[in-house]
Amino acid sequence: MAAVGGGLREAFERLDAVLPVSLALLTDDQLVGLAQDAEALIRQADALGVAVAREFDNRTDETLGEESLARKLGARKPWGALETVTRTSAKDARERILEARRLAKLPVLEAAVDDGVLGRAQAAAIIEPLLPACDRADAALVHSACENLVDLSRVLPATAVVEAAQAWALVLDPDGIEPVENAAVEKRFFRLGRATDGLVKFSGALPVEQAAAIRAVLDAYLNPRAGASVRFTPAADDGAGAGNGEGGASETTANGDAAGTGGTGGTRGTGGSVLRGPSGTPLLTATETQPPADTRTPDQKRADILHAVFAAARAPETPTMGGAHPTVLVVVSKDEFETGHGAARIDGETEPISAKTAKRIAETGGYQEVQIDSAGKILNLGDTKRCATVWQRKALAVRDKGCIIPGCTIPARWCEVHHIRPDRDGGPTDILNLTLLCWFHHHDIDTGPYQLRMGEDGTPEIRWIFGSHATAWVKAVHTPRQALTTAA
Question: Contact at 8 Å (CB) between 69 and 59?
């Protein structure tokens, strides 16, 4: 009892002095005190439970053979033995063992649980964001982070401590966000169900960046000051006359034939190159005569189109919030913005995004520099810097008519502005260095097979490279959906 859960006896004694008790007869101060004492007892009991689980795990080491505690109790794993002895559920027994193992990787948190400072739920909430970053972080910094979080847990609610743990995770491993973002992009989808009783259910999962754009528009329409109901009215394509507001909805059959009335279709024949993802699934396919095929699933295309519709909500009748149209507010430090390495945060979202993503968002929406001192006081508020003006977007809509990647049907009003020569390399923000890309192709343009350049006549040119094969440069011409429909 002295080694672990040392405050358990004291907690019992404090409660024993007032128990049994009728809660209705307690004053407010007495009720607050009882709640604190009861919670202290629960934390001490948690400490004892974790310590027991840890010792069960230690005594069930496979090297012990027949001397293993689990073997003696007729179980193969430590959680099986714990389940047998405590009569808890198999799930709870396993979680206690795994919890003890996770705590062993963070000694400061483990000691705080043993001392009854942290309960199991508090510790688990801190470990979840912190542990993935610990393997790549400096040990001394991890130690400092844990000490700080334990101190905060003495005075703040668990939700506030979790936010602090998430902030520490960014400090420990700022570059760990990008792999999470890339995995999220692969998992995105949007699906409409069948109509039932006049209603259609939908489901989906979107990356933080896409969800934030959609949430910004929804917040504007839900704003009581807007004084209007939802009214998305299709508008002309900024003079471009491209598309009818619908994205491709084609699917590629097993033999590569294109089906449906949109999208890029498939590729026929053999001899093409295949680019595969980490799981071995084909991402893009190409031949010497066909550009890389769009292998997004229909669900992924719906997710991208839904994002494009909301992200392009620039129509005059769109409700405003504070005098401005729905805006995604991204906060990132100057150094991280310029280098593209590190983390950024979108206002209203709980998970961070990478600085690279923040930079891509700024290319389309612009940004504003704010200078602050070490105490957070604003020293200077700079002017908004537009990466492309409204008039430049209109000119691009007339020239490019939409996303210039072969076969992409996304119209100009749903596109983002892309610097052909990156601004980080000195590329200017003028028409002869700008073009239109949809979100999906803008996201992958730096790592995908396509290469862009500006032709001598002032229009974009494109080629694709797969393996050792490189095509000739050709004019990048937007493919409106009507053209694909006619061809089909």
Answer: yes
